[in-house]
Specification:
This is Class I SAM-dependent methyltransferase. InterPro entries: Methyltransf_Zn-bd_dom_put, Methyltransf_Zn-bd_dom_put_sf, MeTrfase_14, SAM-dependent_MTases_sf, Thiol_S-MT. It comes from Rhodocytophaga rosea. Keywords: Methyltransferase, Transferase. The chain is α/β, with parallel strands linked by helices and 409 residues long. Among the domains are: 141 residues, Rossmann fold, CATH 3.40.50; 120 residues, Rossmann fold (3-Layer(aba) Sandwich), CATH 3.40.50. It is built from 13 helices and 17 strands. The strands form 3 sheets. A 7-stranded mixed sheet has the order 6-5-4-7-8-11-10. Strands 14-13-12-15-16-17 form a 6-stranded mixed sheet. Strand 16 and strand 17 form a beta hairpin.
Length: 409
């Protein structure tokens, strides 16, 4: 297998989570009677460019199907993040009714709706048909297609180029990262701005966030590596922000190399050096991640087995992709150790998690069941979830976090 960016031969295994079904392939009652497809979940580190990546065992077209279950608008904190971003970009760069904002992987219009409220023209690009349709119902012009050079050239012919080109949590999802970034170069106006948000590999390793590894994520990115990828396509970083979303993410700001109207922020060099000092550009930095992952697994299993012996009721909250990776690697099968999962999205309720086959219910089930412990699988939304479910304290219910270590809250 070769690196999807620099084509260097991959020989260094970062972590091996054995195999699991695709993290968002939720099941119906009928599906439980049928065979389930599992795919290897093993990451490699490129010793040349230090891109951490998975082999494309599960094709992107199969993952991002017409019946995609992830809708961004069901997280209040994520909507607040999107609105704050919109206000910041308008304030900093002066986008207005004459600007054109384009978002790749626009999902259900969760972000573009805030630009539209300001009467700024927008275009969403979203391959999943059901989420794209929800965006259109909000009045957001949306193209249902995969982004890359081919689509970028079509947009260029139609004179649809961006003053602001947005991609939140999409850069890690593209199997051909060179084709994707080449497309960004094509549709960006001469003085346009690209912002991309993605989970920071440095934080993934520091906090042992192995549950953020799943088949939808083809790449796991550091600022050093992303800077190299963008530079190879004529794009230059001019700012970067470390943000708290998804356990620690980066928001990068990029422009054409030819665009001299924007100065380079000191934050660019500071973060490049911070990563290098941590060792992210050395092979040794990646060596002991597997051991840390396995220790989390062992501690989690010790906890749920003890609660089972003590006849305690244990459920989980957040039927997110990260939760499915976590439960599958820990070997949870059926409802003997964890009884069920609760999620706010009606698109996931009354279905079953892939692999573990745990049923997914609405929040009302918590009030009926009165669990002793709720394991927060969507730990990136911990504060929102704990505030929403604070009533479990009435029966002495407790919250449990598993990453980076077991903690009862």
């Amino acid at each position: 297998m070769k690196c999807r960016f620099c084509e260097h031969q991959l020989e260094h295994t970062f972590v091996d989570l054995v195999s699991s079904p695709p993290a968002n392939s939720f099941l119906t009652q009928q599906n439980l009677l049928e065979p389930e497809m599992y795919f290897p979940l093993r990451l490699f580190t490129c010793d040349n460019c230090f891109l951490v990546q998975i082999d494309e065992y599960k094709k992107a077209q199969e993952i991002f199907s017409s019946d995609y279950v992830y809708f961004s608008s069901y997280s209040k904190s994520w909507l607040a993040h999107a609105k704050k971003y919109t206000e910041h970009m308008i304030s900093r760069f002066g986008f207005n009714e004459q600007s054109f904002i384009m978002e790749i992987a626009s999902n259900d219009g969760y972000l573009l709706q805030y630009f539209k409220e300001k009467h700024i023209p927008v275009l969403g690009i979203e391959p999943t048909l059901n989420t794209a349709e929800v965006a259109r119902l909000k009045g957001i012009l949306t193209i249902s297609d995969y982004f890359g050079e081919s689509l970028a050239n079509k947009l260029l012919i139609e004179n649809m180029t961006a003053d602001l080109l947005i991609g939140n949590n999409v850069l890690a999802h593209v199997p051909d990262i060179n084709d994707f970034v080449a497309g960004l170069k094509i549709v960006l106006k001469e003085q346009g701005i690209i912002t991309m948000e993605f989970p920071h590999l440095l934080k993934l390793i520091e906090h042992v966030e192995f549950d953020t590894i799943y088949h939808e994520h083809f790449s796991y990115l550091s600022f050093n590596t992303v800077s190299k990828i963008f530079a190879s396509h004529g794009l230059e970083m001019f700012d970067v922000q470390e943000i708290t979303t998804h356990g620690g993410s980066l928001r990068i700001f990029a422009k054409h190399f030819e665009d001299k109207s924007k100065s380079i922020s000191p934050s660019v060099e500071l973060l490049l050096n911070k990563e290098k000092e941590a060792g992210i550009t050395t092979s040794a930095y990646y060596d002991d991640f597997q051991q840390k992952v396995d220790m989390i697994k062992y501690n989690f299993l010790d906890f749920v087995l003890l609660q089972r012996k003590n006849n305690k009721k244990v459920i989980a909250y957040g039927a997110a992709a990260k939760g499915n990776t976590f439960l599958n690697y820990c070997g949870i099968k059926g409802d003997d150790l964890i009884q069920f999962v609760v999620d706010a999205s009606p698109y996931k309720q009354n279905k079953f998690l892939p692999g573990s086959h745990l049923p997914v219910y609405s929040e009302e089930r918590i009030k009926e069941y009165k669990p002793d412990y709720i394991i927060i699988l969507a730990w990136n939304l911990k504060d929102e979830i704990m505030e929403q479910l604070s009533y479990i304290r009435e029966w002495n219910g407790k919250f449990v976090m598993c990453i980076p270590q077991m903690k009862i809250l």
